[in-house]
Write a structure and sequence with these properties.
The structure is a homodimer of 164-residue chains. Chain A has 164 residues and is an alpha/beta fold. Chain A has a domain at 25-93 and 122-162: 3-Layer(aba) Sandwich (Beta-carbonic Anhydrase, Chain A). The first copy, chain A, has helices at residues 3-16, 43-47, 66-79, 99-110, 125-137, and strands spanning 31-36, 54-59, 83-89, 148-153, 160-162.
C-alpha cells in the first residue's frame, strides 16, 4: 500500500465508528494550545484532551509567529477560547541549526535567495518559551486578562514542566 | 480544579505509563500534515498515526501561510519528510466571516489598526484546499517531486475526501 492508501484505510476504520458528529465549532474547554509540530508530541494525548476540547496550533518550534497570533486571535475573538498554552519540548530540531546556515544551504540547493525566510531557530529552550509567551501577551489584539502559560514537554519521559 | 491543574493531572497520568521515550526526532513515516486548528480534528486519530509518525502543522484554516511553508521546509530539509498532506474541513470557522469585518471589529474593540493582519477567511472549501496545495507546490524551497495531497475532512462523519 502507498502512504495515502494506508492513511485512507485507517480513516475508513475511524469513520466507521465515528462518534463526534454532534460536536460544536467552539472548543468545549475554551482552550487554545500552541505547540511544536514535532512527531513525538501527540498534544491531545499528553494533555488529556478529547476531540472537540481545544484549538491546537502547531508549527516548527511552537513559535508565536504572526501566523500563530492570527490563529489565536480567531480562536479567542470568533470561537471564545479564554486560556492559552505555549508548549516547546526537549530535543527540539530548532536547537540543532542556525537560520543563516539553513538559508545558505537552501540557496545552494535551489539557486534562490532564502535570506527572507526567518526560521526561528533558537539556543535556549526555557528562554524561547518565555519569549513566545511574552509575544502573545503583548499582542494588541488579545485581551490582557487571558492567561498565557508556558511549558516544556519532555520527550524522554512524557512530562510537562512549567516555565512561566 | 483549574484548567491548568486538570491538564497537569492528565499529563501525570500520561507520563506514568509513557512508552515513547526512545523515538527519534525524524518522523517515522516521513510525513508532514498541514491541517486546521479546529478542536473537532484529532489529526493523528483520523489518519491512524502513532506518536512519532508525522509532523503535524496546524493553524486557523489549514492555510499554507509563510509560517506553514517555513515549517514544511524545516520538516523536509532537516528531518527528511517526503510527502505532504493539506487538510481543510467542513463547517470551518474560516467560512463564517470576512477579513475586513474582523479587522473592523478588532479596531473598534482594541483601538488599534488591524488592517495589516490578514486572516485568510475563505468562501469555497474545495477551492481553498487547491490553492494551499498549489502554494506549497510552487514554493522555491520545496522539491517538485514531493507529493502534496489535498483533502477535506468531514466533521459530521469523520471521513476524508480527496480534493487534489
Amino acid at each position: 500500500m502507498t502512504q495515502i492508501e494506508k492513511l485512507l484505510q485507517a480513516n475508513k476504520d475511524y469513520a466507521r465508528t465515528f462518534k463526534h458528529g454532534k460536536l460544536l465549532m467552539p472548543p468545549a474547554r475554551n482552550l487554545a494550545i500552541l505547540a511544536c509540530m514535532d512527531a513525538r508530541l501527540t498534544v491531545e494525548d499528553f494533555l488529556g484532551l478529547q476531540t472537540g476540547d481545544a484549538h491546537i496550533i502547531r508549527n516548527a518550534g511552537g513559535i508565536a509567529t504572526n501566523d500563530a497570533i492570527r490563529s489565536l486571535i480567531i480562536s479567542h475573538e470568533l470561537l471564545g477560547t479564554k486560556e492559552f498554552l505555549v508548549i516547546n519540548h526537549t530535543d527540539c530540531g530548532m536547537l540543532t541549526f542556525k537560520d543563516k546556515d539553513l538559508q545558505t544551504k537552501l540557496r545552494d540547493k535551489y539557486n534562490a535567495d532564502a535570506r527572507k525566510v526567518t526560521f526561528h531557530a533558537f539556543d535556549d529552550l526555557a528562554d524561547n518559551v518565555k519569549q513566545q509567551v511574552k509575544r502573545i501577551r503583548t499582542t494588541p489584539f488579545i485581551p490582557e486578562d487571558i492567561p498565557v502559560h508556558g511549558f516544556v514537554y519532555h520527550v524522554e519521559n512524557g512530562s510537562l514542566e512549567k516555565i512561566v
